[in-house]
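Review form for a predicted model. The reviewer records the input and the model, then writes brief findings.
Reviewer: anonymous (R2)
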Amino acid sequence: MAVKKILILTNRIPYPLKDGGNLAMDTMIRGYHEMGWQVYVLSMNTSRHHVSQQVLEKLYSYIHAFEWVNIDNKYNWYTIAKNFFFSNQPEHAERFYNLDFKLKLEQVLADFRPDVVQIESVFLSTYLPSVSAYTATLTVLRLHNIEYHIWQSLAKKIGNRVKRYYFNDLKSRIRHFEHSSWKKYDLLLPITMKDAEVVHKMKLPNDMLVAPFGIDVDQIMVNPSVEKWNVYHLGAMDWIPNREGVQWFIESVWPKVHRAMPRLEFFFAGRHMPDYMKSFEGNGVHCLDEVPSAEEFIADKKILVVPLWSGSGIRVKILEAMAAGKIVITTANGIKGISANHGVHYLLANRPEDFLRNLKWCLENKAEAQQVADNARKLVAEKYDYKHIAVSITNKLDSMMDIS
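Model under review:
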């Protein structure tokens, strides 16, 4: 039987493995490789998330090929205004369209001739005409989230009328772009059932398979002997929902927690930490900026808080925390997409009083709280291990290729 070939297109280098998007792409690449596929990855090395040549040359040496194209995707008020007044596409789609990348893609398609092309961002859908022109391959879109849901949530919270108008306009553009793009693929891979329900309502002709974010449970260490019952948050701070959530937690929740439990400490860290958030120090709060190792950062901390109010998809840091035996306290939006039950696998908190009550309960009932963490680790091993997910995706693609 001939080895199946897949070309994966990414709008950033899947490195470093410190945020959900990079981790999601990395486990997908590894999953296909371990299922015996020839994997070719073509990535954008963007100016916003630039990775050095020295690092790039060492990445993904185990797959068939890994190449990249350097592109400038910085944005400013001029490019935003130009897009707003002279285009009907979302600014994101234009930012990721690059002639050099298009030419490189066409070269790879002609030389590699993949059976499947998988695109890891809906905003790379502008390259579908090139894919269709060079090959009759199956096309797959990975839906890391429903993009317009993020901007819809953000727009509701904006006080400035001009900025709110822009966010609403951007939300509408992204919604139209997503809806028109989804129907062009042979297979859609939403990460959550809720996202799949949004797509299903459109009654599209293509196939769909819910493929949750996968993690390598065996590689995540559980260190109960070094843990202290302190609180932490870890997430990329160039993502607006993360910044909003942490700031809300520090300003609206932590003063109540500190008064009730003055010895409890809260540590938060993440890439691209804004300067103003570095000043949130004192009364048990510690900002560590970007940390060299996420594993070392969380190793001695027991309780993860995820005060998230917007965004879709799966919160990767929650799954990783569960796999590491941590207790997770999060909002309804934070747990969205994860098949977990409140009080069994995590603790639900939507108000400051909920966070306070759950934190007190954890400290006063450590054995019961530990059982919640143990249940969560078992859940992740059963439902979110990347090897199981890779099997389901490749089986689906095999069946589609047999039919065609």
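Findings: The first helix runs from residue 20 to 34.
Further findings: The chain is about 45% helix and 15% strand.
Recommendation: see findings above.
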